[in-house]
Design goal:
The chain contains seven helices and eight strands. A hairpin with a 5-residue loop joins strand 7 (169-180) and strand 8 (186-197). The longest helix has 22 residues, at 209-230. The chain has a single domain (5-28, 40-228), classed as Double Stranded RNA Binding Domain. By secondary structure, the protein is of the alpha/beta class. The strands form two sheets. Strands 1, 2, 3, 4, 7 and 8 form a six-stranded mixed β-sheet that branches. A two-stranded antiparallel sheet has the order 5-6.
Length: 234
């Protein structure tokens, strides 16, 4: 286990960026009983970033180069990782929402989401999304949008300049939103960060089985957290 909780906390905020400026919002307990079943819920994701290696604390180019060289064999293995069960998370969530009685469908994210502007009514004290998702209502033909955004995933190892100060750890960082496309209100806004250390030795090159298993466990745990946040079985 890592003894570096402060470092992991810093890593979380580094990787998740500005997600925390929006209020964390939990799904109302009676959501499925009060929601109009004729409303359409679209489930989609962003384009997942490449799984990678991360070296927080290696803050100069030479430091980063040293860290990269020291972990080159592990980096080669990480390049073989994929998102596993998260690859079809839109289909899984849509199916589970349909089992709750909603009219839910998976969809590929429209390119227009990259051009969404800041919502005029947004503030950190309000319960609205920072970006204005309302233009997607007509484009998607939907009333609600479930949006899974993978921020980063892979293996992280903390450094103090050139010196490693933690063992490598597998992680997944994502954000889950459910948005009312009429009002831009956040029905759900839930940041998810999962980290899993290797069970036993981590440095068994070239396959690094401990960290490989840990990564796919992190993927599975992240999927479970999505299900819990939406009160569905995945």
């Amino acid at each position: 286990m890592l003894k570096n909780a402060p470092v992991m906390a810093i890593l979380f905020f580094t990787l998740t960026g500005c997600v925390s400026v929006e209020q964390t919002t939990s799904l109302p307990s009676d959501y499925y009983s009060i929601t109009n079943v004729d409303q359409v819920t679209i489930v989609t994701t962003n384009e997942f970033p490449a799984v990678g290696m991360f070296y927080p604390g290696a803050n100069c180019l030479l430091c980063l180069g040293t860290a990269s060289a020291a972990n080159s064999k592990l980096s080669s293995q990480v390049k073989t990782f994929d998102y596993g069960s998260l690859e079809n998370i839109s289909e899984k969530v849509a199916e589970a929402l349909s089992e709750q009685g909603l009219n839910a469908k998976p969809a590929i994210a429209p390119n227009s989401y990259k051009n969404l502007k800041k919502f005029p009514g947004f503030s950190s004290q309000s319960n609205f999304a920072r970006l204005d998702f309302r233009p997607l209502k007509e484009e998607l033909g939907a009333d609600r949008l479930v949006w899974v955004t993978v921020i980063n995933a892979g293996i992280t190892r903390s450094y103090a300049s050139y010196i490693p100060i933690s063992e490598p750890v597998a992680f997944v960082s994502l954000n889950l939103k459910m948005i009312d496309l009429t009002t831009n209100e956040l029905i759900v806004n839930f940041p998810i960060y999962v980290s899993v250390p290797a069970d036993g030795a981590w440095n068994e090159a070239p396959a690094f089985p401990g960290l490989t298993t840990a990564f796919y466990q992190a993927i599975s745990d992240a999927e479970s957290k999505i299900g819990k946040a939406l009160k569905i079985e995945l």
